[in-house]
Amino acid sequence: MITNFRQVFEKIKSYPKKQISVAVAQDPTVLEAVIKAQKLDMADYILVGNKRQIIEIAEDNGFDIQKDKIFNEPNNLKAIKKSVELVSSNRADILMKGMVHTDDFLRGVLDREVGLRTGKIMSHVNVLESSSLDRLLFVTDGAMNINPDLDTKASIILNAIYLANIFEIEEPKVAVTTAVELANPKMPSTIDASVLAKMSQRGQFSGKIIDGPFALDNAISPSAAKHKGITGPVAGKADIIVVPSIEAGNMLGKAHVYLTGDSLAGVVVGASAPVVMTSRADTAESKLNSIATAVLMANMERTLSIKFGKVHY
To answer: Are 280 and 27 contacting, i.e. CB atoms less than 8 angstroms apart?
Structure first.
């Protein structure tokens, strides 16, 4: 089981180098991350965006970039489309969000002409490296699905399980979280959590371990779960946190970074290729972690389809 990003970096050292297509690359933390990824033999890059600004940022920060790998497109929307097209046409392996709004970026990912649709629900997962837990925690969905219904939450769970499997967590424990631990008709998220837990009990997730509703404390803290009398295989031991809405996931991810100082990675799962999607304000470290995660995803998909099989609901 992979418990930190250092182990990810070690694991992918022997993997083939991948090609990253960066949409709207004129950002110092993005450039720093892709340059480090190249130096680590993790990935090469194609930078799509305003060439003049990219070169200026590189010179101001002392970055040694390859100018022949810059595709000049000053218009952000056109730059996104070109970046996506490079991936969908197999000229790049990984798509990465640069200095652009998430909604504009996702419109490119979902573009019906050149996008990365697979017919499945796509969702975002933040992988949190927690020094207090001494392991990784997968939080979904804080960036893509705004207010998912029951069916969408089931797909979000499957995507997160797939990513956790890639991190060698073969039987991840999934906590469907809300504000309280009891089903309450006045709080629809608690009803969804209860139904998903019952679906898991009935084998509708092929034996995967899903429970809820949980509040965050009793999902990840054994002492909090014990104090509140919450039992079961997931209580206090969750690997995956399914949040009730995009607001909850977004705040949880940013609280992790800005209140604890710990790192994270952010990726989209369910697209036809790995997608690196972090906040524009995230550090170069988090963006490099995200690239490493995407490289891990790109190299592990076929192995996992054999080892773990498909998960159905």
So the answer is: yes
